[in-house]
Amino acid sequence: MLETTSKHEAAPSSLGMQKTQYDIAVEQFQRAADLMKLDENVQEILRKPRRILSINFPVKMDDGRILLYQGFRSQHNNALGPYKGGIRYHPNVTIEEVKALSMWMTWKCAVAGIPFGGAKGGVTVNPKLLSKHELERLSRTFFSLISEIVGPFRDIPAPDVYTDSQTMAWFMDEYSKVDRNNANAVVTGKPIIIGGSLGRDSATGKGVAVTVEEAARHLKIDLKKATCAIQGWGNVGSFAHMFLEEAGVKVVAVSDSKGGIHKKTGLWFNEVAAHKKKNTSLANLPSSENITNEELLELDVDILVPAALEDVITENNARSIKAKLVAEGANGPTTPEADDILFKKGVTLIPDILANSGGVSTSYLEWVQNLQHLWWTAEEVDHRLTAIMKKAFAEVWKTSQEQNVDMRTGAYVYAIGKVRDAMQIRGWV
Ligand code: GLU
């Protein structure tokens, strides 16, 4: 038994405090660990990130002011391969959130069967308030400061909330200066021209659609007759809309951070995209009604895709969810209490570490192409991604059926088992 006693520390809820994302991540882990009767030493190691870098750094604004920002990189576990995970820019980023997200990445990569561990980074900033030059300076400074712990075989960042291929281009360029090499494999989600992969931008949404199709097959839901609501119409939600529509699903509601729209006869991807481009927000699309983000979750639909941020399905609204199938496009949208309520109601929930693993899986395909200096066609990438997603879904489905648990716990049992095996064979425990 290791010397820490984290399992036995009082849970925040019992002390009347609000649970952090990290508390939730540990709780989810603990459910599976208890079910598996996981070795206590393995548990101790997996409950905490291996290393967290916390950085306070100055950025010069266009008007000459100097502002101090805070950013983090949490590396949870690298038993299965180099650390992997995105970097997000958001005003609510905290060290606890980044720790949780890094742990989720460990399970996500294990579920997907790709040779990576889990990491995550974040900067506490509202990028919408910064000019492009300010964002560039912030990105370059942050990346040069974390460059001591990242690298193509150590830790490979990628886009996440409010970061994109441009951010990755700055990261790669900055790292290449430090490394004195053209190190394109240090980040994934890059622009195509500097080594990005075809299909990476749409990959997370594509993966969500593949898992929905697989679940529908098992649950005998006819997708051609199914309706769907998507919360969040960013990189994940918008492409999930596109691919679900291709699969015959009628998407009747979508939303962004300012609110949503609902149209019973269906919202076509192209019409929503054109409206969003013209108006910058989704609201007021002709012949649809405006709804709130909360109302969207409770709509009478067959499929619900929360693809925005954490903690949106909680014990307060889980009983009002009408969808039969929930696919977590976002990381951490459902609390453990809500998980229980949904499971008891007979709702099938495809957990984040499976449903949104298409992004990191295509990051893996991008990394492989970078290391080999060869380029696959869009069809080839798509084919490989679909195969990865189908296999991951089948493994998680099988584990949850065998253990008679919800799919999140099934996914955890499957993922933790792999990480444990790698740690054991490497001689860590
Ligand atoms: N940020 C994405 C995620 O949460 C992608 C991570 C990656 O590609 O490394 O899965």
The CATH topology of the largest domain is given as: Rossmann fold
Name the CATH superfamily classification of the largest domain. Answer: NAD(P)-binding Rossmann-like Domain
What's the domain count? 3
The count of β-strands is 12
Strand order of the largest sheet: 9-8-7-6-10-11-12
CATH class descriptor of the largest domain: Alpha Beta
Number of helical runs?
14
CATH architecture of the largest domain: 3-Layer(aba) Sandwich
Ligand catalogue: glutamic acid
Largest sheet: 7 strands, mixed
Helix proportion range: 40-55%
List segments where confidence is low: pLDDT < 50 over at least 5 consecutive residues: 3-10
Mean pLDDT: 95
| Percentage beta strand | 15-25%
The coarse overall form would be globular
Question: How far is the first residue's CA from the last residue's CA?
Answer: 10 Å
Q: C-alpha Rg, in Å?
A: 21 Å
- Judged by helices, strands and strand pairing, the structural class is alpha/beta
- What is the N-to-C order of secondary-structure elements (H for helix, E for strand)? HHEEEHEHEHHEHEEHEHEEHEHHHH
